Sequence to fold (274 residues):
Amino acid sequence: MTVRPSLLRAAGMITLGITSPALAREDDTVTLGGGIAYAPSYEGSDDYEVIPAAQVRGKVSGYNFFMRGLQFYTDLVREPAEETLDLSFGPVVGARLNRVTNIKDAQVRALGKLDPAFELGAYAGIAKTGVITSAYDNLSFRVSYTADVASGHKSYVITPAIEYGTPLSKQTYVGIGASADYVGDGFADYYYSVSPAGSAASGLSPFEADGGFKSVSLNLLGAQSLEGDLRKGWSLFAVGGWTKMLGDFKRSPVVSEAGDDDQWFGALGIGYTF
Fold:
């Protein structure tokens, strides 16, 4: 079975909504989720599609792992179960399938199919449990650096992120997250520049994009256990998000003429925690 890039793009949308870190069990645990998502056909598009979504996160032998977007994070720092301050550091691996296939806009499609980027890097973070509402809410901050090691943008992406979540009970969890992407010149040029030849083929204006802050994002989420405890069994989740394109990425004809600098997504689904 061929996996569509749109399916993979949606995979990380439900990351926050399945299991609260504050409710995590001390033993090994894995959460799998699936559902449907509503997302742009590329970063900056004004065309949307309904697509499948999937997600995984958990802890094995004291090591946490989770997904954000198409990136998979592994925390190599083990903290005592009773510790309320959590330091994290580890590798990040992922893929970027922006404008690889399934481009709905005819002008952007005329610019040609791009190669996927496969990114490797690392992240560091800090989280505190028991911050505002109770002894179980969680505030976390992390920053990641990844670079393309394949034939895609051949540049880098730096992503700072902050997240807050709180269990309202053992059955209900809500959270909010914000992040930004800072990218290199190679990334900007690969995805958002329009060459003279590309302009002639597509009708879009010529444009040279430089690196910088690409976008900022805000996500909201909720999860509800179907079995009385979010730490095990079945649960429902909902996630909604908004992304604002910035700078040259907002001004690029790929966005300003063929797309929209306001990007929206949502996902609904069901998860199971082992």
In short: The domain at 5-273 is CATH 2.40.160.40 (Porin).
